[in-house]
Amino acid sequence: MAEQTQIVIRWWHFALIGVMILMFVMFAAGLGRDTRFIPSPLIGKPAYDFKLKQLRADKEISLSDFKGTAVVLNFWASWCVACRDEHHVLLESAKKYTGKPVQFLGVNSKDTKKAAIGFMEQRGFFPYPSVVDGQGRLGLEYGVYGMPETFFINEKGIIVAKHIGALTPEIVEKNIGLTGALEQRAVSISDDASSKKEVRQ
Amino acid sequence: MNGSLIEIGLGATSIALVLSVAAVVLSFLSLQRGAPAFLHSARHAMILNALLITLGCFTIVWSFVIKDFSVLYVAQNSNSQLPLLYRLTALWGAHEGSLMLWLWFLASFTAIAVLVHWKSHPLSMPYVIMTLAGLQFGFLVFILFLSNPFIEVHPAMPDGRDLNPLLQDPGLAFHPPTLYMGYVAFSVPFAFAIAALARGQSGREWVVTTRRWTLFAWVALTSGILLGGYWAYYELGWGGYWAWDPVENASLMPWLTGTAFLHSIMAQDQRNLFQTWNVFLIITTFGLSLLGTFLVRSGVLTSVHSFAADPGRGAYILGFLIVVSVISYGLLIWRGNRLVGPHKVSNLVSRESALLYNNLMFVAAAVIVLTGTLYPLAIEILTGERVSVAAPYFNKVMAPLMLGIVLLMGLGPLIPWRKSNFAKLRKQFALPAGLAVAIAIIAYFLGATDIIAMLAIGLIGFVFAATMMDIIAAVKANMRVTERSWSRSLSSLAMNNQRRYGGFIVHLGTLVLIIGVVGSAFFKEEATVTLKPGDQVISGPYVLTYKAITPQKGPNYTERMAFFEWKKDDGTTGTLTPSKRHYPVTSTVTTEASILSTMLGDLYVVLGNEHGKEEVTTRVFWNPLVNWIWIGWLIVLLGVFFAMTKKAPKIVTQPKEALA
User: Fold this and answer.
1) Mean pLDDT value across residues B450-455
2) What angle do CA B444, B447, B448 make, to 5 degrees?
3) Which of B135, B221, B224, B229 is nearest to B182 (CA)?
4) Residue A186 forms contact with B (CB below 8 Å)
5) How many residue pairs from chains A and B have C-beta atoms closer than 8 A?
6) How far apart, in whole angstroms, are the C-alpha atoms of residue B304 and residue B184?
7) B323 CB near a chain A CB, below 8 Å?
């Protein structure tokens, strides 16, 4: 009991303390990040094309149907809490971008038709189609885990941004900006006579 | 009435919080005042805590069973249509309940440890209780204040949402609890290591006492990791089982250091070596288990597993991790030198140095995985750029290390303690080595042109031959002495050396598992093709002919089922019928992979999109030897349980210490 405590300093003490401090500082810095902007390996890659049935119509649609416009691909489900938070953002944004070369497209994932329709009856129907991805296979292709997740695809079919979690109007605007869909129109005005006419009218 | 049930759970868990503080204080007082009565009370508090937390978990599970949607957690993670099995397993379907499960394991293991080791370790007990009660306190605060599963909503929701559909699978239902069991079981050896540090007790006592705990934790962690792979392979349909995802890595890191620990405690047990190192390893292993929880639950890393990310919770876990590390590594630095025994590793060719090399490799592997996992985070913090460390990095760096570990697996157990020499080694290993070279050359000409694959195959042969030769030699010697039959000799040898023979079984199981990994990693074939009826695809030893796609009717679905005929070189044939199902009621489409699973490999067919005129895109995988992985795992399980049958020798605290 009476043994004197003496610390014998060794080289590994410094190594251990150093490594620990380094790691904790890193984690603390990592926590400070906005985790909603999580990078996806898919960014810069062509978006996976699909052909799926629509939720409210018997027709199938493909992503490639919208080549030439930017696509906002939103994965949602009735059981997902954050999807409720972003619902009004999607309704307003879709309205705001009507007439612009931006197509909104929903992917109703791992959901039932009844619950999905009920969800929209309660909160308002999306003014754009949703396709049905019942088993979440399309979600796997896009590396979706948590819902909601939203992909922003440019007019060439390349994924330019991905957002995890509920959308806000600012996020939608910023990411649609990244697709270049709005500038695209400005360029085409200058070289295309017919659209010049449209603008004059 | 139902509302009050979940309130009972909340009450029980809150009392557990108070008791965990009480246990820490009481153990401290028992040390300060030398009064055993305090420690008795602390012990009772820990046993009571196990019961209270069991009650807490039970109230949640019961609310799932009776579909009480006034409980928010129940409403968020189940609905009235969910089958009973998944309502039961929904406890760990999301964050709050997962932590409750973590805590339940911790409380149960604490109670078991306190009951089992009470009499034999009176002097360590205050420190053990203090450590485990402190950990319970940390988790209880987190659960009650930051992730409470007992919250009620009034009025109750008419029906719940649903359990995360990915969890509605038997494979995945059991993957998280098994993994947690492994993580948490390391807390008991950890607590005993802290006790050894605090007491400055340098003997083999704590490692011998906690050997079964370590084995149990290791086998649970191994099984948890493999169950995850099994599920990914059969259910996700991407044809693989391991993707070096950050969350997978998070579970692999404590496994690597835990495996190092499992081996190096033998040196402390047998030769009183590596005392400080073993304490370092168990602190690191348990710390990495906590880190695993931190990485999964805080959203600090990008991963397919990232659940609802919550920085507030992340900050708490980080704080908790810092407290645990500062206390335990601090104690190691402060008291570590008192553990060092008189012995040193004296010879480079000996069992102890083989264990040392084994440890270096496992720890190096853990460092590599850790760096690879955290590198993207570091780069992002420093430069703001986002990178991802992909599988090729891990495969490239880990493969040579794994080869080294396999080599040691053959050498280590056969080299004697203390001292051997190269001449002896040459004699002992010449034959297996020759065999290994022959096997590697044959493998080369059979198509294993990749150098890593060739080496791996040769080494597997080497380890197998060396191990079997050793066992056979021992059996022969035994037969000579006892004049018994070989089977009775073998069984008597094994029954008297459960640890050694259990270890052999685990090693052989690992070899079988590695055969599966090498086979599926190096000889995999994969093709995505668009087929017309009559088209053929060659995959592995099979010729797959696409016949037709037809509509079928099931009980509650219609499906487009494709017919493939497979034909093997030996003339056997059969059909595979991958399909796409459409459930009209729920408007869901499911893709059913069709797998021809044999010991040689799996022919794995998944349907993609149809393009009219019966044209269909198909993904065809040939995954050689995948079944060997699961079989290897079963052999490993068997070996560990056999090794666990060996009771720990009773080490009663030396009287000299007891007096002091």
Assistant:
1) 88
2) 55
3) B221
4) no
5) 122
6) 24
7) no
State the Cα torsion A136-A34-B100-B326 to the nearest 10°.
Answer: 140
H helices within A33-168, ranges in order?
81-96, 113-123, 137-141
Tokens matching residue B394: 């891990």
Report ipTM for this prediction: 0.70
B332, B560, B579, B589: best to mutate for the A interface, most A CBs within 10 A: B589
pLDDT class of B556 with cuts at 50, 70, 90: low
Domain-embedded: residue A62: yes
Quote the pLDDT of residue B589.
65
Report how far residue B46's alpha carbon sits from residue A83's, in angstroms, rounded to the nearest whole number.
Answer: 43
Residue A40 lies in a domain: no
In this complex, which of A20, A28, A110 lies closest to B325 when CB atoms are compared? A20
Helix or strand holding residue B552 (H, E)? strand B542-553
Q: Do A7 and B322 touch (CB under 8 A)?
A: no
CB proximity B305 to A under 8 Å: yes
For chain B positions 172-201, those within 8 Å of chain A (CB to CB) are 200
List strands edge to edge, sheet with A149-153.
A130-133, A102-109, A70-76, A149-153, A159-164
* Contact check, Cβ <8 Å, A29/B381: yes
Bridge partners, residue B2, by sequence: none
On whether residue A59 sits in a domain, the answer given is yes
Give the residue from B367, B587, B606, B607 with the most A CB atoms within 10 Å of its CB, the best one to mutate.
B587
A26 inside 8 A of chain B by CB? yes
List CB contacts (< 8 A) between A36 and chain B: 309
Question: Measured between beta carbons, which residues in chain A are less than 8 angstroms from residue B322?
Answer: 24
pLDDT digits (tens, 9 = 90+) for B173-183: 788 899 999 99
Q: Which domain holds residue A86?
A: 51-191
Per-residue pLDDT of chain A (201 residues; tens, 9 = 90+): 434 456 677 788 888 888 888 888 887 777 765 544 455 667 888 888 898 999 888 888 999 888 888 999 999 988 776 787 788 899 999 988 888 889 999 999 877 888 888 888 888 889 999 999 877 778 877 877 667 889 999 888 889 888 877 788 888 988 888 888 777 544 444 444 443 333 333
Question: If pLDDT is split at 50, 70 and 90, which confidence band does B295 have?
Answer: confident
- Residue A107 belongs to a domain: yes
pLDDT at B183: 94
pLDDT at residue number A199? 37
CA distance, residue B358 to nearest chain A CA (Å) = 20
The minimal CB distance from A110 to the residues B165, B585, B591 is found for B165
Write the CATH number for A157.
3.40.30.10
Q: Which residues in chain A are contacts of B329 at CB distance < 8 A?
A: 16-17, 20
How many domains are there within chain A? 1
Can you tell me the distance from the alpha carbon of B226 to that of B603, in angstroms, rounded to the nearest whole number?
21
Determine the pLDDT at residue B423: 81
Q: Above 60 in pLDDT, residue B660? A: no
- Which candidate, B551, B522, B519, B505, places its Cα nearest to that of B644? B505
